[in-house]
Design a protein that fits this description.
Blueprint: H1 5-14, H2 22-34, H3 37-53, E1 55-56, E2 63-64, H4 70-73, E3 78-85, H5 88-95, E4 102-106, H6 124-133, E5 138-141, H7 147-160, E6 166-169, H8 185-193, E7 196-197
Helix pairs in contact: 1-2
């Protein structure tokens, strides 16, 4: 049996989200239809609000409603250390450990030739500019231990060597092939503590 057009379209829309298959999309569509109209309207308004107010920080490229973001604006953070992550979700995962008190730089992706993403497509140039212009003493490379993450880490390490600063990476206490956002706080905290020079 085919669903009525509005349900079919809603299910199709949910299926566009990463990790959502046909069955999950169908469950989400029916759950939404059972919600009170006022809750659906609030949900829709929150999505529009997030989409229209959240932008990239002009300094670190973290996603935030303010520019500079809350982390870049925090005077209590160590301005001499930059932790490089691929995405804002990785920054959030590291922040949850409460172990790191420096700045961040969000690359907005990793080098992935298969997906047509080169160094010019992520925020490498901006990272180099920050290191050249700010009094940075250490860069921590905190990228996922995937093939693309490793390639990006090695590429960045090579570019950063001439700056004569400490270049370290988080320890590989995180399983290879997993994402930082799914690692627990203890594993991430130990990975930060056990970082080593590249």
């Amino acid at each position: 049996m085919e669903y009525t057009k509005p349900i079919a379209e809603l299910t199709d829309f949910f299926q566009r989200f990463p990790g959502i298959g046909p069955k999950s999309a169908q469950r989400l569509a029916f759950y939404l239809l059972k919600m009170p109209l006022s809750d659906v309207e609030k949900f829709a308004a929150k999505m529009v609000e997030a989409k229209t107010t959240v932008k990239c920080c002009s300094k670190c490229f973290n996603m935030s409603a303010s520019d500079p973001c809350e982390i870049c604006s925090d005077e209590n953070r160590n301005k001499q250390i930059i932790c490089v992550v691929a995405e804002t979700k990785d920054l959030i995962a590291i922040e949850k450990t409460r172990e790191y008190k420096g700045q961040y730089h969000v690359l907005q992706g990793v080098i992935s030739p298969i997906d047509g993403i080169g160094a010019g497509d992520i925020r490498v140039k901006e990272l180099l500019t920050r290191i050249a212009e700010e009094n940075i003493t250490e860069v921590i490379l905190a990228l996922n231990p995937s093939v693309e993450g490793e390639a990006t880490t090695l590429y960045l390490a090579k570019l950063l060597k001439p700056f004569n600063i400490k270049i370290s990476r988080i320890a590989l206490g995180i399983p290879v092939g997993s994402d930082l956002e799914y690692a627990d706080e203890i594993t991430l905290a130990r990975a930060l503590e056990g970082r080593r020079e590249v």
